[in-house]
Amino acid sequence: MNPSVVNSASRSVLRTLARRAGPASASSIPSGAACANRSIAAFSSMASPVAAAGNMATAHMTSSGVAHRSYSSTSTLSSVVSAGEEILAHFGDRASSFQGTDIAGAMESLAKADAVCFDVDSTVIDEEGIDVLAASLGKGEEVAAWTLKAMEGDTKFEDALAARLAIIQPSRAQIEQCLSDTPLRTSPGVDKLIAALNARGTDVYFISGGFRIMIEPVARAVVVSKSNIFANTILFDEDGNYAGFDPNEPTSADMGKPKAVGQIKAEHGYETVVMVGDGATDMQAKPPADSFIGYGGVAIRDAVRDGACWFVKDFDAMTEIVNNFGERKLNN
After folding, report:
1. Which of 95, 120, 158, 252 has the highest Cβ tally under 10 A?
2. Is the pLDDT of residue 172 over 90?
């Protein structure tokens, strides 16, 4: 564990205890290495800042210096949301390979999340759905170029969406045939992560610039409610021919994902929401998302890798956090 990280969290606990004890105690708080040396053994053995302060509310800092919510406890550590630094310490030597601007903060958000929102293309599934559809119609390369522009943030999403649909103009029958011939594949481990979230009572949403008609079968496969999908709706005429797309869907335009997350938080009163995705449009969702976890298991995008609170290449550590930390949520 980095001594500077230990020092930040341990000094926060000591300050809290000193404030409760009075001014005389506050003046005796150690600094620098002395503070770290007194507390590093506790952190190495996974001792919690919450447990260290007993039943008091404690303040703690992430490794990036961002203050997070204080908690109070009248029970054992297993029944409370664990602080991000403690969760990070749980991973031991594995933590040295983690990337992100606020890893501990993202881990804490995931541990206490009321809802987790996933992008679908190149995150829940290991491909881009529109590219699969375009390839089935012989328009693969032309559409893939526009997809890349959208994911890298080089063009407005609504422009890329309109351009791609204008190229392929898929009928309902063509989409259904594509899904029958080449069912969309889920990314390794995402089913276990979603199952863990469902078991804990954390609500799961899909927020995608892809197409609802293609995403709904994926949602059924991993047990995500149809009502929890925010995606684009392709319009068809009475004969099933392509007739455009619904511009009123939040995800049909640039900055649509933060709009969708904001709508979700406002409607359900969620306190903590995490966004997970591979693209620049997903990273836009923080805020209002409390943390953004970038996923690079399919494609690594430089902006996402460098800007994510936590950047992962698989879902294993996230699943471990959901299974081992945090509180079980009460389903509404």
Report:
1. 120
2. yes
